[in-house]
Each structure stands twice: as C-alpha cells, then as structure tokens.
Amino acid sequence: MSKTLSHIDILIRILHIIIMVAFVGAYFTGDSEDLHQVHMMFGYILLMSITTRVIWHFLSPRISNTAPFGIKKRSSMAFNAIKKPFSHANSVSLFSKNSIQLISIGLFQASIVFIFILIPVVVALGYGTEHFTYSLRDLHSFFANLFLALVILHLSTLILNSILAKRFQGWTMLKMTWEDKKITKFMTLLVLVLVGAFSFVYLRM
C-alpha cells in the first residue's frame, strides 16, 4: 500500500458538496406539499452520502492513498482545541487571537461531528413521519432546525478561522484534484452516477 498523503481526496470533496446541496434542497422544500417528493429525495441522498462517507473512512486507507478523519479523531481535535485556551489561569489570554482561533477550530470540528451524528436521525424521523406516524413531524422539524444551527455554526467558524488565518480555510475541501488513485476516481464517478440515477428514478415514481 502506498504512503498516506492526505485525509481528503476527491471522493470526500464530492460527498461534501453533495451533502451541502442535499441539505439545502431538503430544508427549503420541507414545507412545500408540491415539492414533498423532492424533499424526500434529498433526504435519502443525505443518508446515502453519509453512509458512503463512513464506508470510505474504513475502506480508503486499504485501497487508496488517503486516511480520512473520523468522528473519534475530530472529537479529539475539538476537545483539545477548546480545552487549551481554558488551561490558562489568566482571563485576558482567553480573549487573545490565539485562544479565539483555537476555540473556533474546536467548534468547527465539533460541528462536523454533530452534523454526522444528526443526519441519520433527521432522515430516520423523516422516514418515520412519511411511512409510520405523522406525529413524528414536530420531532423531525426540531432536529432539522438543530441541523441548520450546526450548519450555521460550521460556516461561522469557517469564516472566523479564515479571517484569523488570513486565507480561506474551506478551499482545501472545495478544490478538486486528480492526483488520487484510479480507484478513488472510479468510486467518485460511481457515487455521482448512483446519486444521479437514484434522483432520476425516484422523481419518476
């Protein structure tokens, strides 16, 4: 196996974009009866994307050249980043640029962890509302709004980190690269085809 180069590859970038689009689509079609089918489609795409991301976390170190960060790694990063500024007795240092940046990085990582945990919950409640009992709708809406709050936290800390670092921190996730192994490119193409095919078939049902 080749040496690990990064924790981000083109598949992770594509999945990140799909999750963003699916969340925005699901959130803004949630209250429309006419777009209910579209809303459900976006929800299923969210679940498909997060499931693929979890599988790739375990699979990629074996067949690719990346080792993606998982929930355990990101939780540790979040805890350590937030804990460090509070380890100083001087309250002035807590409001220093370095401390604010560490707290912001910690919250950024924490938002990713909770978003990953929340996606299956929101989708499951949506599925339950659709197929079992409508009484789950309020609970589904609550967790969807909590999801939105986490996304806002995620974007806010990304912007703050970018300002403090004087460069856009999200560029590494959005910048496409073709330096990954062929298997990674193949998996990326496969995911895009499957999402596209699922969307086409589901909307025609």
UniProtKB/TrEMBL annotation:
It is a multi-pass membrane protein. Keywords: Cell membrane, Membrane, Transmembrane, Transmembrane helix. The chain crosses the membrane at residues 12-29, 41-59, 102-127, 142-165, 186-203. Residues 8-174 form the Cytochrome b561 bacterial/Ni-hydrogenase domain. Its main location: membrane. InterPro entries: Cyt_b561_bac/Ni-Hgenase (IPR011577), Di-haem_cyt_TM (IPR016174). GO terms for molecular function: electron transfer activity. GO terms for biological process: respiratory electron transport chain. The keyword Glycoprotein does not apply. GO terms for cellular component: plasma membrane. It is found in: Cell membrane. This is Prokaryotic cytochrome b561. The lineage of its organism: Bacteria, Pseudomonadati, Pseudomonadota, Gammaproteobacteria, Moraxellales.
